């Protein structure tokens, strides 16, 4: 099931052409991902305290239409893969006023052991929550 997260474009998010700087969309993907996990009853602090980190291994963005200062946007986050070893999400960022598609994107994270840095698998307690979120 997708999650929807509302944001507003701040002045500092824009560039000298008065549109959102492209790098902000990657940051907004992260906001969507964190909110998706929160809706699945998983917090990043909880994972890190349990000894897991989750570096990004892939990120893609395709820009369709510019967003500008003070636009209200919605981040639509869709799970593509939620396993014991990785998380992958696709995103749409749309202008709320007219539903204009601004950006589509994709990210992938792998779970690693915080101490060793080696790729690892999540224990069942987290894997079950991810699987439930994938199936809702």
Provide structural commentary:
The protein is an alpha+beta fold and 136 residues long. The protein has one domain: Hotdog Thioesterase (Thiol Ester Dehydrase, Chain A, Roll). Helix content is 26%, strand content 36%. It has three helices and seven strands. The strands form two sheets. It has a five-stranded antiparallel sheet with strand order 1-4-5-6-3. A hairpin with a 3-residue loop joins β4 (72-82) and β5 (86-95). It starts with a strand and ends with a helix. The mean pLDDT is 96.
Kindly give the count of domains: 1
Q: What share of residues are in beta strands?
A: 35-45%
> Helical content, roughly?
25-40%
Helix/strand class: alpha+beta
Structure described in brief:
26% of the residues lie in helices and 36% in strands.
Name a few traits of the molecule:
26% helix; 3 helices; 36% strand; 136 residues; two-stranded antiparallel sheet; five-stranded antiparallel β-sheet; Thiol Ester Dehydrase, Chain A
């Amino acid at each position: 099931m997708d999650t929807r997260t509302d944001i507003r474009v701040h002045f500092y998010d824009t560039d000298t052409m008065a549109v959102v700087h492209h790098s902000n969309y990657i940051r907004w993907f992260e906001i969507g991902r964190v909110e998706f996990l929160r809706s699945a009853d998983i917090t990043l602090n909880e994972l890190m305290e349990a000894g897991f980190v989750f570096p990004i291994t892939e990120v893609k963005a395709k820009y369709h239409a510019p967003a500008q200062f003070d636009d209200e946007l919605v981040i639509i986050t869709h799970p593509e893969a939620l396993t014991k070893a990785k998380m992958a999400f696709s995103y749409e960022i749309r202008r709320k006023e007219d539903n204009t598609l601004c950006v589509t994107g994709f990210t992938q994270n792998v779970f690693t052991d915080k101490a060793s840095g080696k790729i690892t698998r999540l224990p069942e307690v987290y894997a079950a929550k991810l699987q439930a979120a994938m199936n809702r």
